[in-house]
Amino acid sequence: GTGATDLADDPIPERRREFVRFQLKSRQDQLRDLIAHARSVSPRPIAFAGNAVNLGPQYQIQAAVLDFLVFETLLPLPPQGRLIALHRLGYQLMRGGITAMFPNIINLLDMVNSGKDWDVITQRLAEAWAAQQSFLIPHNAYVFGGGTSTVTGTATAPVERIGPMTALAWSHRDLRDGQLVARVGLVYSFHEVLREYLETGYAFSYTTIGHHNAFLALGEELQKRHVLFDVVYAGDQELIPRRLDAKRLAAYDTLIVP
């Protein structure tokens, strides 16, 4: 009787927000139940991963139930798109667990069709290395619009393009040992991102808006100015029960809040 045709048209904002929150919580609970069941019937230990696209809020909730995360990400060509903040966000979200960036399927389609821009993989490998994180090198990867026929197809990074960088990383792998020591902390508030997400639900762009984009923009500017920083993650105390730790905050000389 309200004339609403979708969630965004609901005339009662609070009801809409509660419904979207229920969607997120039920999705998280379903993942947890499916994983628990699979482990209960498996004769051997198994680990679970998921694709948290661009580490948007609708995917961050997976971190509470998964063993490691892969996050598919649009990769602008240099000099655009400095993504150390996204790497460190994944690291803090998983509490130091395994995370790995992967090229978006649209990027892969362009690379396959043009035969160019594969060198961006080399640049992103170096960036992930600088962030003490991981970047998955495409091998027989799915590309946008290609359907299942491309699963064993052509999206494979040429060895001659990426070989020098992987060889460099392997020969100096000891440099990845230890912890990143930064005196500047860039704060990420899942509470604020969730507040924005609840207004629109799954109509929310996977690239997100507001606080998330402000966080990425600040991280890009810090990286551009060669400022060593790390990410300070704060949850919402329900979907992601993570509080700011006073002892950890004291380790920084400067905190930046988007």
Secondary-structure topology with pairs:
Blueprint: H1 13-41, E1 49-51, H2 57-60, E2 68-73, H3 84-93, E3 98-103, H4 105-114, H5 119-130, E4 134-135, H6 159-171, E5 184-189, H7 190-200, H8 211-224, E6 229-234, H9 246-249, E7 254-256
Parallel strand pairs: 1-2, 2-3, 3-4, 5-6, 5-7
Helix pairs in contact: 1-7, 5-6
What does this structure look like?
- By secondary structure, this protein is of the alpha/beta class.
- Helix content is 41%, strand content 12%.
- The chain is built from nine helices and seven strands.
- It has helices at 13-41, 57-60, 84-93, 105-114, 119-130, 159-171, 190-200, 211-224, 246-249, and strands at 49-51, 68-73, 98-103, 134-135, 184-189, 229-234, 254-256.
- Strands 1-2-3-4 form a four-stranded parallel beta sheet. Strands 6-5-7 form a three-stranded parallel beta sheet.
- Helix 2 links the parallel strand 1 (49-51) and strand 2 (68-73).
- Helix 1 (13-41) packs across helix 7 and helix 5 packs parallel to helix 6.
- 27% of the residues are buried.
Largest beta-sheet details = 4 strands, parallel
Structural class: alpha/beta
Rg result:
20 Å
Low-confidence stretches: none
Taken from the alpha-carbon principal axes, the silhouette is globular
Q: Which percent band covers the strand fraction? A: 5-15%
For the record, give the distance between the C-alpha atoms at the N and C termini, rounded to a whole number: 41 Å
Assign a percent range to the helix content: 40-55%
Mean pLDDT: 85
Helix-strand topology string = HEHEHEHHEHEHHEHE
Enumerate the strands of the largest sheet in spatial order, edge to edge or round the barrel: 1-2-3-4
